Input
Amino acid sequence: MSSRADFASAADELATRVLSALRGAGGTAFVSRHFDTASDSVAALAAIRVIGADTFTPHVLTGVPFHTDDAATVARSLAAFPAPDPTAQAPTARTEQRTLAWRDWATAECLARFSGGSAPGTTAPPQGDDELADTTDWRRWSVRMAQLATLAIPGLDGPVHEAARAAALPLARGATRSVLRRDHRTAVCLIRWLAWLHHEGVALPVDPAPMAEHVRLLGGVGPRTAVDLAIARHLLDGRLPQEPEAVRT
Output
């Protein structure tokens, strides 16, 4: 049986592959290779669900084609780990399940975009998530947006993105507070949202570039944090292709 450490290790291993692809080591079906070479296939599939839509970022941000083997492996992970129904949960757990549902939605949207088909075991975007638009408690709200940072990808759009566009100041406050508290994992996720807003042309109250560099230098960057920083840098530098290539067989 897979342990929590096995799942964490598998997620870090896949994040390292994503980071390598973002840095230009393309040309291979890195998601399917992650699964095919794994000693624990269950943990490997779970890692794909954890990394989620970020498995597509090399293709979105650099324009390299997405392989059919990768598409099949992502679809397999979504089918193996379907998200629970958030309406069937207690109020506290409901927010957590909606967060997972949003992440799965983003993965399914990217899969459909690059494979030309629908993803098995997925549903429409979560409905009735009123917490997204309420930034009164900006500390709590920014923590949730940090959990949704995998949605900060060009080409995706929905209520989460609408909430981000309308809340540049709360995002900046959350990022600044996280940096000051040395909560580097939360900080880099919020910096990624600020970089996405910059890419969208939204005026920002802070410059996310030096914040990202500060976290890179002092944050003890792990693989998943390094992926977020690499994505933020692509968005800040405007190094995006005109239109990413479709799936490669």
In short: The longest helix spans residues 91-115.
